[in-house]
Amino acid sequence: MSANTAVAEKYRNNFLKEIEEQVEMGDWVKMCMQCGVCSGSCPTNFQSAWEHPPQELFMMIRAGKREEVLTSSSMWNCTSCYNCIVRCPRKLPITHIMHGIAEYAHRLGMAPKLQPTRFFSGLFWKNATKTGRVNELKLSMGLYFKDGLGAGIKEGMKMKDVALGLMKAKRLNPFEIIKGHACKDQKGIQAMLKKAYEIERSRKAAKVAG
Amino acid sequence: MADIKVAAYICKGCGLGERLDTDALVKIAQKDGKVPMAKSHDFLCSADGVAMIRNDIDNEGVTHIMIGACSRRAKTEAFYFPSNAVARANLREGVIWIRPDTEEARETTQEMAEDYIRMGCAEVKAMTAPGGNPNTGSSKTLLVVGGGVTGMTTAIEASKTGYPVVLVEKTGELGGMAGKLYKRIPVHEPFKSPADTGVADLIAQVMGDSNIKVYLNATVAKTDGAPGRFVVDIATESGATHTEDIGAIVQASGFTLYDMNKLPELGGGQSPNVVDQLGLESLARAAAAGDGVIRRPSDNQPVKSVVFVQCAGQRDPTGTHLAYCSGTCCNTSIKQAMYFKDANPSVDTTIIYTDLRTPGNGEDFYRSAQEKGVIFTKGKVAQVVPNGAGSTVKFHDLILDDTEAAMADVDLVVLATGQVPNSGVDIFAAPKESEEGAVEVKPISILNLNYRQGPDVPQLKQGFTDSHFICFPYETRRTGIYTAGPVRRPMDIAQAREDATGAALKAIQALENAELGRAAHPRSGDLSFPKVRLEGCTQCKRCTVECPFGAIDEDEKRFPVFNESRCRRCGTCMGACPVRVISFENYSVNTVGAQVKAVDIPDEFSEKPRILILACENDAYPALDMAGMNRNEYSAFVRVIPIRCLGSVNTIWVTDALNAGYDGVMMMGCKHGDEYQCHFVKGSELGRVRMSKIDDTLKTLNLESERVRDLEVAITDIERVPEMINKYAAELVAVGPSPFKGF
Amino acid sequence: MAKKEYAFYPGCSSQKGASASNYLTSVESMCKTLDVKLTEIPDWNCCGASIGYAEAGELPRHVMNARNFALSEQHLPGQEIVATCAACWLGARETRERLTHSDTLMADTREALKEAGLQIKEMPEIRHMVEVLIEDLGFEEMAKHVVRPLEGVKIAGYVGCQTNRPFGVAGESFENPMYLDKMVEMVGAEAIPEYDMKVTCCGGALAFSEPEKAQAQIKDIVESAYDHGAEMIVTPCPLCQANVEIYQGQINQRYGTKFNIPVMYYSQLMVVAYGGSAKDAALNGQVIKARRLEEIAAKPVKR
Amino acid sequence: MTEHVATNETILVVGGGISGMTAALEAAETGKNVVLVEKNPALGGRTSQLYRYFPKLCHPVCGLEINQRRLKNNPRVRVLTLAEVSGIEGSTGNYTATIRIKPRYVNENCTACGDCERAVEMQVPDPFNYNLGQHKAAFLPNAMAYPQRYVLDPAIIGSADAEKAKAACKYGAIDLDMKEETIQVKAGAVVWATGWQPYDAKKIQPYGYGRFKNVITSVEFERLADIHGPTGGKILRPSDGKEAKNIAFIQCAGSRDENHLRHCSRICCMASLKQTHYVREKYPEDGKSTIYYIDIRAIDRFEDFYQKVQADPSVSFVKSKVARISEDEHGNPVCWGVNTEGYKRYTTPHDLVVLAVGMEPSVKGVDIPGHIVADSSGFIEADPANGAVFGAGCASNALDVNRAVQSATAAALRAIQVVNKVAKAEA
Questions:
Q1: Do D73 and B490 touch (CB under 8 A)?
Q2: What is the rounded CA–CA span in Å between residue B650 and residue B647?
Q3: pLDDT, tens digit, 9 for 90 and up, residues B15-66
Q4: Which segments in chain B show pLDDT lower than 50?
Q5: Which residues of D touch B247 (CB under 8 A)?
Q6: What's the distance, CA C175 to chain centroid?
Q7: Domain presence at residue B659
Q8: How many structural domains does chain B have?
Q9: Beta-bridge mates of residue B352
Q10: E strands present in B545-663
Q11: How close C76 gets to chain D, by Cα (Å)?
Q12: Per CATH, the architecture of D199-359 is what?
């Protein structure tokens, strides 16, 4: 949490500035005019309400409600359907801001630990970047076993029929467990990503330093 | 008076020839109408028909023309004889189009047409072609009262148009409110940043213009006369009085900011660090003069955080403060927040609003402010608590629905209080009792009009000057005197300059027409004017009291003094006069009375009642016309006479009608009250007040009150009016025929 | 020499034995008929997809896509990249736009790519297969090859999100795109233009992480297809296809519905209409079998 | 009326709506000669298509009647209808405008008796009613039409109906051989008052205008409420003619939106507040209005109108820009969104949805003949580079009627200043 408190200290009550500098597309937050189109366009918001819909998150950020925002489960409800983006009268890249805030909360370790999408998101990225290509079987397994073996088997059983169906259709390959698809130049990919992270981190740090 | 020669022309076109016995109509004109020269024509509005009339004018010496054809609203180009007296009998829209084309209807329809011919002939004989008001003045000079942006713009624009200007400013310098601003709201693409006010340039233009005479530290002590011949006394600081001959006046007396001391709960007057928008402007100017840093009044520390409170003392439904929105404060606060952000982006600027109102391209200005980092919070400020140098702003965050929201240690709070018009004395205001201890400040007159009806221009309930503020925003109730700028409606610089330019035109137009003896809006160009036979006057003062435009003064013997060029020709004075000594050349107690009397009244056994309709020519009469165009039928027993305004209805017309055996009278006028639709503002109201007393007259004649109906009619009532007529006709059958028939 | 050539970016799900392998098979047959040559970008990598956001950060995500650009430029110079997967197309296209608009991002990306010994120059255009079909070939051309019209088959065109927003197919509306319906008609089947769930989100990755939320949406999508009398659903997106098809069983359990509607790729419809076999169209790749199509595919081609 | 010859002392006014009529009349009543050009067959423009004005709820045609009377009495204004300015050459004090005049197929002999209308069969869409209804192909543009003269729709020309119309006219008013003509008019100054047009609601995809019959625009709603409109003043919904009693008004339909119009159109809030009054007027018992808004912009004195409407129990306000509209099985449009005051989700069905569509200039700045400086929305800016071409009314900004009239009066003075200089020079 030290990283977290550090920035928090630096920005004191100006949470908006923190978001602008640390979050992808965060500098758009100030442009919201609170019309609510994003919140009204979000499918998951109508299936099962968000704790705080996008436009409300933006207001909370302006109001300096740092803790509530970063620990919120809200952003993790985003399905990347991009309805909000195409409808926003102020052209805010809302989907990306949601992802950005989520990523930042995750980076600070403030995101809800048990939020399944947070977990899956991380899992997916690791899975995809490990070899350069997604290993769907390991991905699903990883998800089911996130809460340990027992829970994993239970989850797995739930998905049994789905998995079987896919296997019958040759769209799920049990052998991926051993050897799945992969890029040849994995070293290159790792090196490239390592560098990318370095650059990004240093840039954001520079902003904190001001 | 020169001898008159009347001619009657009856058209057979548009089905008139088929539906009516036009030969009979010609005979009626000759026999009953006593117009020997009566002709019919197959197509009167055709080149040939018009040529026939022209020829009679030129070669037969015809002076008075009665046209029996379509409505006076139709074919006006064809029947345009400005130098003759013209009456139009409405046989088309008023007769055949509102009657069924059936055998049984034929008789009553014909009777209707015949009456209209009789009425037309009677009317035209009672008319003379108006010659214009001789009592004119020819001053081309504009008086502009107020040296702010509005006044200066009016002066400059008038001068550019070629008219000399006298400009009176009560303070020692030009510039007014705008002169106190650091910058203004942008008016050009890209609408992103505050712009120069341009006031200095305006002042330079005014001072450099030999055509503009400027009086500083001066007020208008007395305004006498009428458009084209105003005589204005200007009092200066030195005590000296200068008298100027003036053609027309533009009042640009501007506004005063609503007093923030009336808002203690918002910190108004509680701390030097709570200021109004003007206060902030002076801080910004001070900063600009110095190191560019806006400082806190209390301790001169640089402002690090500022909160703008919108609608402070405005949009208040309780009536304690201003009920209206000043329309410009949102943009102003945005501009002022930019003062801080442009100088130092790290200053926290928050605007707390309920509805952000930035119309038009103001939206770009709003977006620009957001880009610059100005925070907009939708909320209602409950309280501003100054503590030490800082203040705490407590508000209800409407988005987060947080009633306890607060911002602490705010260096500076700016209250967006509204614009209060400097409109002088409200001559109709009921004296309001002042609350405990408070001293009632008497408003100071701006124009000191030496008018029977008071020293200033009448106002609407919120103190803005009265006008038909939708279609005809400039039309005040004092002819030749126009108001411009925030005294009419809250405005910013851009709007005020536009308004000032328009007002300059209206003033120029007024003095030009006054010189030609013509009326101003809404009867613009009308050459008729009120004439009074003083020998018959009883000094009852009704005309001087009622005139909606304050055109009539009183002399020491309390006789009315008509200022024709202040007059709008509505005829309210004529309607008010109990002794009927006021008339217009082409519209008088006689022109209407003669029509009333000309109608042929069948006896009580005929079962043919007669109903007189006096219809306002602007709304009710067009509605009746359009009912005709729609072929909406109504009773053949009505006889319609268009009138200039309900206010011009003289009771004698009604009593004459009833005495003559009419069974009923319908009066159709416009809506009155706060949302009045009468184009003479008070005309329809005054007419109604007058008619409310008609019951006494009815009693003396012992007639039922049902015999007179006063109706509010709008121009769109093309179905409602026929229904009302038919309903009333049916009711009258129940009431029974008038006992006065056949006398 | 083929009529058209493109650098091909199949994406992870289209690989052999992966969830959209049937998509790939049918696309290959379709392109053969249309004489479109697809050359796979050597050693292409994952686009990161939108769901990768928690860990991906901004630059790493773009670098992943940039690597594919670099490889494509290096091995298939002058060719535009075609993706069949909505997410791949979106991810790659977004990266391309961001890099074009930010010099810093571009510089940083180049620096990172050096580590893999790669570099980008102009960056090729990124196209979705549907764009290629509509814009480069056109409906007329596509229709020419129909030899076995899917007469009487009523198909709901489910466009979904990521081929439609934020970029979408040029000239189409976000709320009511018509191209899929036009394709359905083009293959001789019956379209349902008023199908009101055509752009409703299938839940995307939430189908894995929060099934109940995703499945609530999938239910609406399928239900509405039934309400409009559809026999099958067609889509241009692998994740849409999988989500809408494979969870119908679970949805039936959850909501007591009796869903069992096939969910096809446009490419599969075209292959069958073009006279291809069930195998060419990878109809065996359906979890919910498309009987009507299998029957039609079994019929002889009327030439 | 009388055909005075246009000279460099003439003022050309383009557009015969309330702004153009005002500019023309104010100039004429100050003694200047004016040529007034209107592209429609009758004057009156957009306001003549309104049922009532805010905030007085009076009828626009009442003011139109006055203006028409001013016109009838003033020989200085020459009116050209069905006419469009296609070019303006020259410079301050010396312009030549090229004007294209479409054939009316009816000459000044017309008495507006209506025989031709009764004679013909053909029906054509009625643009005065935004094509919500139809009228005969021989028609009077509207009840208040000035000039009060019939028009033949081009569609009828060459048909047997056209011959019927010609035969029916006893006054030789119908001339089927009329051709489009192009004339040139000299002028010292030009007042450009071509007004506004409603933003094309089809472009606002989430609201389904064009897809859902019961989603209409605010200007169309005016016609539904008007006695002269297609429903004779009854508020009936297009899909099934059912009485529409539960009506949603959606603000900023196209305005304040970077995807559509970037500016705020100013009048829409007041227009919707006004229109709730129509609902109340027609259905006093059970009429219900809901206004979905971002900010209610009831500026200056209009605020108390807003307060009156707020006090009305039949009107509710939702602080929300509706995200999308769907249609339920009864053909009711359903509004989806979130009330941002305290985050409340809603999916609310209504009988009818009225989109408060934004205002855009009828003629975009770039399309105005000559090189005119306009802002990014296409409104004419006051700029010396425009010479003696002056924007007036809604061609110059998003304005309500009283501001438009002000603007037009100001423009008239600017034009007069120019022609006065010309007069001085020529004298």
A1: no
A2: 8
A3: 999 999 999 999 999 999 999 999 999 999 999 999 999 999 999 999 999 9
A4: 1
A5: none
A6: 18
A7: no
A8: 3
A9: B309, B377
A10: 552-554, 560-562, 582-583, 611-616, 638-643
A11: 37
A12: 3-Layer(bba) Sandwich (3.50)
CATH of the domain at C22: 1.20.1050.140
Which residues of chain A from 59 to 98 reach within 8 Å of chain C, CB to CB?
77, 79-83, 85-87, 95
Query: How many domains are contained in chain C?
Result: 2
What's the CATH code of the domain at C207? 3.40.50.11810
**Same domain membership, residue C173 and residue C118:** no
Residue of C46, C85, C196, C265 to mutate for A, most A C-beta atoms under 10 A: C46
The answer to whether residue B681 sits within a structural domain is no
Restricting to D residues 182-221, those with a Cβ less than 8 Å away from any Cβ of B are none
Lowest mean pLDDT among A150-164, C52-66, C109-123, D307-321: A150-164
Share of chain A above pLDDT 90, in %: 74
Q: Would you state the structure tokens that stand for residue B209, as one six-digit string? A: 């213009």
pLDDT digits (tens, 9 = 90+) for B104-116: 999 999 999 999 9
The CATH architecture of the domain made up of D11-102+180-195+362-426 is 3-Layer(bba) Sandwich (3.50)
Task: For CATH 3.50.50.60, list the domain ranges present in chain D.
Answer: 11-102+180-195+362-426, 199-359
CATH superfamily of A2-113: Alpha-helical ferredoxin (1.10.1060.10)
B67: CATH: 3.40.50
Residue found under tokens 């919500």: D132
Mutate to test the interface with A, among C45, C175, C215 (most CBs of A within 10 A): C45
Q: Report helix, strand or coil for D288.
A: strand
* D216 Cα to chain C: minimum distance (Å): 18
Neighbours of chain C (3+ CB pairs under 8 A): A, D
Contact C209 A43 (CB under 8 A): no
Burial of residue B380 (number of CB atoms within 10 Å: 0-12, 13-18, 19+): middle
What ipTM does the predicted assembly reach? 0.96
CA distance readout (Å), D354 to C223, D196, D279, D307: 30, 19, 12, 21
Integer CA distances (angstroms), B172 to B152, B199, B279, B386, D411, in order: 14, 15, 20, 36, 32
Range of the domain at B206: 142-254+422-430+440-515
Q: What is the DSSP letter of B442?
A: P
Domain region containing C55? 4-129
SS3 A95: helix
Please choose, from the candidates D86, D74, D75, D6, the residue with its C-alpha nearest in 3D space to the C-alpha of residue D419. Answer: D6
Cα C243 to Cα C205: distance, rounded to the nearest angstrom: 9
**Is D126 buried (19+), middle (13-18) or exposed (0-12) by CB count in 10 A?**
buried
- Sheet containing D34-37, strands listed edge to edge, beginning at the edge strand earlier in sequence: D77-80, D34-37, D11-14, D189-192, D389-391
Instruction: Give the minimum alpha-carbon distance from C176 to chain D in angstroms, rounded to a whole number.
Output: 8
Residues from chain B that touch A16, judged by Cβ atoms under 8 A, are 375
Residues of A in contact with B373 (CB under 8 A): 30
One domain, residues B412 and B275? yes
Is any Cβ of chain B less than 8 angstroms from the Cβ of D144?
yes
Task: Please answer yes or no on whether B325 and D170 come within 8 Å at the CB atom.
Answer: no
Domain with CATH 1.10.1060.10 in chain A: 2-113
How far the first Cα of chain B sits from its last, in Å, is 34
Which residue of chain B comes nearest to A55, CA vs CA?
B399
Quick check: is C135 in a domain? no
Nearest-Cα distance to chain A for B362, in Å, is 14
**pTM exceeds cut of 0.90:** yes
Size of interface C-D (CB pairs under 8 A): 12
Q: Which residues of chain C have pLDDT under 70?
A: 1, 302-303
Q: Do B46 and D109 touch (CB under 8 A)?
A: yes
CB B158 within 8 A of CB B504: yes
Q: For chains C and B, tell me whether 3 or more CB atom pairs sit within 8 A of each other.
A: no
